[in-house]
C-alpha cells in the first residue's frame, strides 16, 4: 500500500513522528522528514532501514508564509504528495489562570494554524492528483479538557473540527482523512511542553513514562490508515475515558478530577 508513496511527516525529529518515519519507510514509502532541528532529522534519516528513500526538509510550523512554495517544490521533486502526516506540535503544563495569553497564542499558532496552513498548501496538490490521505495526530486531550492543558487541549479540539470538515469536503476528490487521538504514549513530549512561564517543562512525566510504547502506538496508527479509518483512539485504559464521558458523563467528571495532572 505504501510502496514508493511519498509520506510527508511533520514533527519527525523525535517521538511519534520519528517512529512513523521508520515504520512507513520499512513499508517501502519515501518519507519526507520535517521539523525545526535539521541535525535531529538527519539522525532519524540515518536510522531508517532505507535512507535512500527519504528526504530531510526542515520546517517551522510558526513560519507558514512559504508553505505553498515548499509543497509545490516537493511535489515537483518527488512527483506527488500521497500522505501528509500532521504530527508537529507543542504540549503544555500550566494552569490557565497563570498562563499568559502569549503562550496560548504560541501553542495555537503551532498546533492549529501551522497545521492548517500546511494542509491548505498540500490540498491543491492532492486535488490535482485526485488522491491523497491526510493524517492528523491530535490527542486524547482533543476529546476532553484536562489539568494544565487548557491551550493544548483547545488547539487539539480545534483540529478535530477542522479535519472533520475537510474529511467531508474532500471526499469528492478522493482525499481521505484520519484523525488519531493518542493517550499516554512513552515519548519526550512532556519535556518540551511549555509551563506557565513559557519555559520548557523539562521533565518526563509519569503519564508518559508509563505509557504505551511509541512503536505500538505508531503500528496502530498505520493500521488505522491502511483501513481508512476516519478516527482512531490509541493508548491503554485511559482511552476508555472518551466512552465514559459520552455515555456516563457524571461518572466521567468524578473520575477525571482524581487523575494526576502529570
Description:
- The chain has 262 residues and is an alpha/beta fold.
- It has one domain: Rossmann fold (3-Layer(aba) Sandwich), CATH 3.40.50.720.
- Helices cover 46% and strands 15% of the residues.
- It is built from 10 helices and 9 strands.
- It has helices at residues 15-26, 38-47, 67-78, 101-129, 150-170, 189-192, 206-209, 214-226, 240-247, 249-256; strands spanning 6-10, 30-34, 54-56, 83-86, 92-93, 132-137, 175-182, 194-195, 231-234.
- It has a 7-stranded parallel β-sheet with strand order 3-2-1-4-6-7-9, sandwiched between helices. A two-stranded parallel ribbon has the order 5-8.
- α1 crosses α8 and α3 packs parallel to α4.
- The chain starts with 5 loop residues before the first strand and ends in a 6-residue tail after the last helix.
How can the largest sheet be summarized?
Answer: 7 strands, parallel
How would you write the strand order of the largest sheet? 3-2-1-4-6-7-9
In CATH, the homologous superfamily goes by the name NAD(P)-binding Rossmann-like Domain
User: Could you report the average pLDDT, rounded to the nearest whole number?
Assistant: 96
Between the first and last Cα atoms, what is the distance in angstroms?
38 Å
Helical segment count: 10
Output the CATH topology. Rossmann fold
Question: Per the principal axes of the C-alpha atoms, what is the gross shape?
Answer: globular
Please state roughly what percent of the residues sit in beta strands, choosing from under 5%, 5-15%, 15-25%, 25-35%, 35-45% or over 45%. 5-15%
The rounded Rg comes to 18 Å
CATH class: Alpha Beta
Q: What is the number of domains? A: 1
Topology pattern, helix = H, strand = E: EHEHEHEEHEHEHEHHEHH
Structural class: alpha/beta
Total E-strand runs: 9
* Second CATH tier, the architecture: 3-Layer(aba) Sandwich
Helical percentage: 40-55%
Q: Which spans of ≥5 residues are poorly predicted at pLDDT below 50?
A: none
